[in-house]
C-alpha cells in the first residue's frame, strides 16, 4: 500500500498474517532479535540532530567504542561524512525524511529500524530493513497519553520526535546507561517557510540542526515543541520505572525533565 495510514492499520491488525503474507514480518523478527542480542548490556548514546551535537564530539568514545551503542536517525549520515563516526542503529519514522533521504540512508551500513507503515517507501530494500509495529495515529495520544514499549517483541509508539522511538529501542537493549546528545528543543520556525498545514520548506540554511544542509530544500514537519517536551518527560518517567539511568548531555538544551550532565562527565565517569 502507498499510504502510511493504511499500512499502519494493515500491520496493526495483522492483516498480512490473515493473507498469509508474513515473510517480511518473519525476517524483521529475526533481525530484531539479532539486534537485541548483539547490542545488549552496553552504554547507549541516543543521538538527536540539534546544533549542540557539534559540541559533543562523538569521536571521544573511539578508544572504547565497543562499550557503546550509537542510535541515530534521519540526517545523521551528514555527521558521519564530516566526522567518520558511524551509528550502530539507524531509525526513521517521519515520512518526509524517509522519502527525501532514502538514498543516503540506504547507503549507510548499519542496522536500520523503520516502522512497517513506511514499507512502501522502501519496497526495494525490504529484506535489508528491520521493520517494527509502530503506533502513529493508532497511539491515541490525546486519549491515553504517551505509551512506551519496554518489550522489543511488541509495538512501539509515536512521541512527536524520532528520538522517542530511539529511546524505546535503547530501553529494549537492557542498557547500562543511556545518554542523550544533540537534543536541544530550541527550534526557530519561520512561518514564511510554511507551504501547507504542518509542512515547511526552506531554501535557506537549516539553523535547527547540526548541519546547514540538513533540511535545506527538503520538507519538514512543524516540530511541535510542546509535544516534544511532554514526550521527553514521559520517557524519563518510563526510564525511572525501568531503573535505567538516563542523562541529557546536550549543551544549552531546553529539556528540563531529564537530568543534565556534561559530555565530559558522561564519557569519563560512567
Radius of gyration: 18 Å
Overall structural class, as computed from helix and strand content, comes to alpha/beta
Q: Quick one: CATH class?
A: Alpha Beta
Q: Which CATH-level-2 architecture?
A: 3-Layer(aba) Sandwich
The largest sheet has its strands arranged as 5-4-3-2-1-8-12
**Low-confidence parts, pLDDT < 50 over ≥5 residues?**
none
Largest sheet, strands/sense/barrel: 7 strands, parallel
CATH topology: Rossmann fold
User: What is the CATH superfamily classification?
Assistant: Thiamin pyrophosphokinase, catalytic domain
Task: Compute the separation of the termini in Å.
Answer: 46 Å
Structure description:
With 270 residues, the chain is of the alpha/beta class. It has a single domain (40-113, 155-269), classed as 3-Layer(aba) Sandwich (Rossmann fold), CATH 3.40.50.10240. It is built from 10 helices and 12 strands. The longest helix has 18 residues, at 225-242. The model has no long low-confidence stretch (mean pLDDT 95).
Amino acid at each position: 500500500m502507498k499510504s502510511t495510514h493504511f499500512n499502519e492499520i494493515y500491520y496493526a491488525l495483522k492483516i498480512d498474517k490473515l493473507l498469509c503474507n508474513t515473510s517480511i514480518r518473519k525476517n524483521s523478527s529475526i533481525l530484531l532479535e539479532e539486534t537485541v542480542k548483539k547490542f545488549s548490556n552496553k552504554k547507549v548514546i541516543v543521538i538527536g540532530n540539534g546544533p549542540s551535537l557539534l559540541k559533543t564530539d562523538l569521536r571521544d568514545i573511539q578508544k572504547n567504542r565497543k562499550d557503546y551503542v550509537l542510535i541515530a536517525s534521519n540526517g545523521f549520515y551528514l555527521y558521519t561524512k564530516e566526522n567518520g563516526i558511524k551509528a550502530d542503529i539507524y531509525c526513521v519514522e517521519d515520512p518526509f525524511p524517509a522519502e527525501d533521504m532514502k538514498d543516503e540512508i540506504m547507503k549507510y551500513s548499519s542496522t536500520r529500524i523503520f516502522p512497517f507503515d513506511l514499507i512502501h517507501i522502501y519496497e526495494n530494500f525490504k529484506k535489508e530493513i528491520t521493520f517494527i509495529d509502530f503506533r502513529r495515529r493508532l497511539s491515541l495520544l490525546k486519549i491515553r497519553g504517551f505509551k512506551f514499549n519496554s518489550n522489543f517483541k511488541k509495538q512501539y509508539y509515536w512521541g512527536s520526535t524520532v528520538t522517542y522511538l530511539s529511546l524505546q529501542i535503547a530501553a529494549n537493549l537492557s542498557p547500562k546507561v543511556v545518554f542523550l546528545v544533540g537534543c536541544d528543543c530550541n527550534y526557530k520556525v519561520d512561518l514564511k517557510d510554511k507551504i501547507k498545514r504542518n509542512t515547511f520548506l526552506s531554501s535557506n540554511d537549516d539553523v535547527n540542526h547540526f548541519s546547514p544542509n540538513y533540511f535545506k530544500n527538503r520538507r519538514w514537519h512543524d516540530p511541535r515543541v510542546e509535544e516534544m517536551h511532554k514526550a521527553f518527560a514521559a520517557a524519563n518517567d518510563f526510564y525511572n520505572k525501568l531503573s535505567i539511568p538516563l542523562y541529557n548531555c546536550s549543551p544549552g538544551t531546553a529539556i528540563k525533565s531529564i537530568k543534565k550532565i556534561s559530555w565530559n562527565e558522561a564519557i569519563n565517569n560512567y
